[in-house]
Write a structure and sequence with these properties.
This protein is mainly α and 277 residues long. The protein has a single domain, classed as MetI-like (MetI-like fold, Orthogonal Bundle). The chain is globular and about 70 Å long. This is Transport system permease ABC transporter protein. InterPro entries: MetI-like (IPR000515), MetI-like_sf (IPR035906). Its main location: membrane. Belongs to the binding-protein-dependent transport system permease family.
Length: 277
C-alpha cells in the first residue's frame, strides 16, 4: 500500500513525458509559424525570440487563391465523404448483421479480406476506369466510392456494434408491422450513434488529411484541397516558403482538432462497444 501512490505518480510522470515527446513536432511547428522565416532553422528551440504574424497573412494569400478557398474545397469533399460512409456503411452493416441472403458468410469474408488489400494495388485500375468516364480533375473519384460502401473497416465496425444490440428489438418492431427499412431507421440507427460517430470522426480525419488520392485526381489549381495546396509552398528549384507553409499547416489542423474534440466521448464509446474489446 505504501508504494502504490509513488508508482501511480511515476506512471503519470512517464505519461506526461511521453506525451510531450509526441507533441514536440506540433509545438515546434506552432513556434516556427510565428518566427521570421530566416530564423526558423537558425533557432531550433520552442520559444521564439522574435514574433511575427507575417507568415499567416502572407501564407493566406500566397497562392493563386486565398487559402480559405482550398479549405472550402477540402470541406466539401470531406463532408460528402462522411455522409457517404455513414449512409452506405450503415446499410451494408445492417444487412450483414441482421438480414439473411445467399452466400452471406462468403461475401462477409470477402469484405474482411479487402481490408488487407493495399490501396496502392487498386490505384492503377481505378485511375484508368475514372479516366475513361471523364472523372479526372473532379471530386467524383474521391466521393462516389464512399457512397458505395468501399470502406470495409467501417462496415466491420458497425456490424460488430449492431450484433451487440438484442434481436428482441427487431422482433418487437416486426410485431408492430415494421419492415426492414423502418426497423433500420427507427430502431437500429438511433442506437448506433457511438459507431456512427466513430465512423464520422475517422472518415473526417482520413479524408481531410488525404494527400495521395487528392493529388492524384485533382491536378487543376482551381480544384486543389488544403493538403495539396500546402505542397505548393515547397519548391525544389528555388526557395521554399517554410514560414507560410507552417502557418497554413496550423490553420488546416484546426478543423481536425475541433471535430475530434466535439465527438471524443462518442469515439470512446464506439470503440469500447464494438469488436475491439
Amino acid at each position: 500500500m505504501l508504494f502504490r501512490p509513488a508508482s501511480r505518480l511515476t506512471r503519470h510522470l512517464l505519461l506526461i513525458v511521453f506525451g510531450l515527446f509526441m507533441l514536440y513536432p506540433l509545438l515546434w511547428m506552432i513556434s516556427s509559424s510565428v518566427k521570421p522565416e530566416n530564423l526558423i532553422f537558425r533557432e531550433p528551440g520552442l520559444l521564439p525570440h522574435d514574433l511575427t504574424g507575417a507568415n499567416y497573412s502572407g501564407g493566406w494569400h500566397a497562392l493563386k487563391h486565398s487559402f480559405g478557398y482550398y479549405l472550402w474545397n477540402s470541406a466539401v469533399i470531406t463532408v460528402l465523404a462522411v455522409v457517404g460512409n455513414l449512409v452506405a456503411c450503415s446499410l451494408a452493416a445492417y444487412a450483414f448483421a441482421r438480414l439473411e441472403f445467399p452466400l452471406k458468410k462468403l461475401w462477409f469474408t470477402v469484405m474482411l479480406l479487402s481490408i488487407m488489400l493495399p490501396h496502392h494495388v487498386t490505384v492503377v485500375p481505378q485511375y484508368i476506369m475514372f479516366s475513361k468516364i471523364g472523372w479526372i480533375n473532379t471530386i467524383w473519384p474521391i466521393v462516389v466510392p464512399k457512397f458505395l460502401a468501399t470502406d470495409a473497416f467501417f462496415i466491420f465496425l458497425m456490424v460488430q456494434f449492431i450484433r451487440t444490440l438484442p434481436r428482441e428489438l427487431d422482433e418487437a418492431a416486426a410485431i408492430d408491422g415494421a419492415g426492414h427499412w423502418r426497423t433500420f431507421v427507427q430502431v437500429i440507427l438511433p442506437l448506433c450513434v457511438p459507431a456512427l460517430a466513430t465512423t464520422a470522426i475517422f472518415t473526417f480525419i482520413w479524408t481531410w488529411n488525404d494527400f495521395f488520392t487528392q493529388n492524384l485526381y485533382l491536378t487543376n489549381s482551381d480544384n486543389l484541397t488544403a493538403p495539396v495546396a500546402l505542397r505548393q509552398f515547397l519548391d525544389s528549384s528555388s526557395n521554399s516558403s517554410w514560414g507560410p507553409m507552417f502557418a497554413m499547416s496550423i490553420v488546416s489542423l484546426g478543423p481536425i482538432f475541433g471535430f475530434f474534440l466535439a465527438g471524443q466521448k462518442y469515439l470512446v464509446r464506439g470503440m469500447a462497444t464494438t469488436g475491439f474489446k
